[in-house]
Specification:
Elements lengths: L9 E2 L2 E2 L51 H8 L6 H28 L4 H12 L8 H30 L1
Antiparallel strand pairs: 1-2
Helix pairs in contact: 2-3, 2-4, 3-4
Keywords: Cell projection, Cilium, Flagellum
Protein name: Flagellar assembly regulator FliX
Length: 163
C-alpha cells in the first residue's frame, strides 16, 4: 500500500498525526484601562482612553448571496432554459437549411460532397435537451431525416464507385 500523503506520514498502514505546540498568551506592555468595572476601553499610547460605544440592537440578518450569484461569479451559471431552447432552435434551423441546400444541389445537378460534409458534421454533434419535449421530438425527427439523407447519398456514392 502506498502512502497517499506527500510528506510520507503513513507507516505500515497507519497515519502519524503530529500537532503544533499551543500558542501562548499575548503579553502586553501596558495595562488595559477600564472605564467601569466591567468594560475595557481601547487606548492608544499617548492618548486618553475612549469610551466604548454601546452595542446597537440586533440587526436583521442579510441573506448571503444566492447560489446562482456565486456560480455566476465563478463563471458556472446553470444554463437558462431560454438559452437552451434558443440553441436547440438554431441547431434545428441549421439542419433544415442544410437539408434544403442538399435538395437544391441534387435538383440542379451540382456535386453534393461539401453539403454532405457539413450535414454530417452537424449530425455528429450530440443534441442537448432543450427542456421542451415537443421541440426535442421535432429536432430528433430532423436529425433522423438528415442521417437518412447522408446514408442514401453514401450508398449511392459507394454503388457508383463499385461499378
Amino acid at each position: 500500500m502506498s502512502c497517499p500523503f506527500l510528506n510520507g506520514a503513513c507507516r505500515r498502514g497507519t497515519m502519524r498525526i503530529t500537532t503544533t505546540p499551543p500558542v501562548g498568551a499575548v503579553q502586553t506592555s501596558q495595562p488595559v484601562a477600564k472605564t467601569d468595572g466591567s468594560r475595557q476601553a481601547f487606548q492608544l499610547p499617548g492618548r486618553p482612553a475612549e469610551e466604548p460605544r454601546k452595542a446597537d440592537g440586533a440587526r436583521p440578518m442579510v441573506a448571503p448571496a444566492g447560489l446562482e450569484t456565486l456560480l455566476a461569479v465563478q463563471g458556472m451559471v446553470p444554463e437558462d432554459r431560454r438559452e437552451r431552447r434558443r440553441r436547440a432552435l438554431k441547431r434545428g434551423t441549421d439542419s433544415l437549411d442544410m437539408l434544403e441546400d442538399l435538395k437544391v444541389a441534387l435538383l440542379s445537378g451540382e456535386p453534393v460532397p461539401a453539403v454532405l460534409l457539413k450535414l454530417r458534421g452537424l449530425t455528429a454533434m450530440k443534441p442537448e435537451a432543450s427542456g421542451d419535449d415537443g421541440l426535442d421530438g421535432v429536432l430528433a425527427e430532423i436529425d433522423l431525416r438528415a442521417q437518412v439523407e447522408i446514408a442514401k447519398r453514401e450508398a449511392r456514392e459507394a454503388a457508383r464507385l463499385a461499378t
